Amino acid sequence: MTRKYFAYPYLAWMVLFIVVPLLLVVYYAFTAEAAGTISFSLQNIAGFFSTTTLNVFAKSIWLAVLCTVICLLLAYPVAYILASSKINSRTLMVWFVLPMWMNFLLRTYAWLIILDSNGIINQVINLFGLPSAQLLYTNEAVLLGMIYNFLPFMILPIYTALTKIPRNLYEAAEDLGANSTTKFFKITVPLSMPGIISGFTMVFIPSITTFSISRLLGGAQTMLFGDLIENQFMFMQDWHAGSAISFVMMILMLISLYIMTRYEKAGESSGGLW
Length: 274
What we know:
By secondary structure, the protein is an all-alpha fold.
């Protein structure tokens, strides 16, 4: 009975740093300040549907979808090779996890040097007598930084799902005359779907809310949803508008998480064979 007391510090921490900030966001989102008085208002929520905000939101969604799809296309073959490798796959996984031990901003700053007009890529281009290309402060640079930073979050859940597939399923499929292609699409892909969904969630959500990558690699030319929220809080000092945008974004993320969770549970209830 006394073990429950060990959870109290965690509960206090969660209330102080999760519940209270969320309540503050909701409070500022649905209030407005005028003439020194604060009153209930839906004006800030309606501001989310302005043309500027919707354009930024659409651009953020587009880059996040591109990042997620590309990460999936890159991560699945890597995870499949690692899971089926006869070499100690845990040792190989270290090489993909190792960059995550470095600070997130430092990893992003490294791309500033690589993509700069005098960076490594342009130096190689100049060796062939070609003019330097504008690689930095573009949407492509932001997308590249997002893929680099979030790719391990796609590899790890897919790799975990692949390693949990029972080997006897492949043996049974071979006994029934299934070839490699059939085994891959009838066994490997369906049973790895929970890992794909987890990876999709772990990449898509931080991609759509990132602001440090877009600020460093996109500069003033790239405004994403995270940058818009930061500008409202830090530069415009409008906590009400910033909280309203954050609140709507949070609701949309919760809806997407709910849909993905239901989809994953539906796959598990059907034995993983979608």
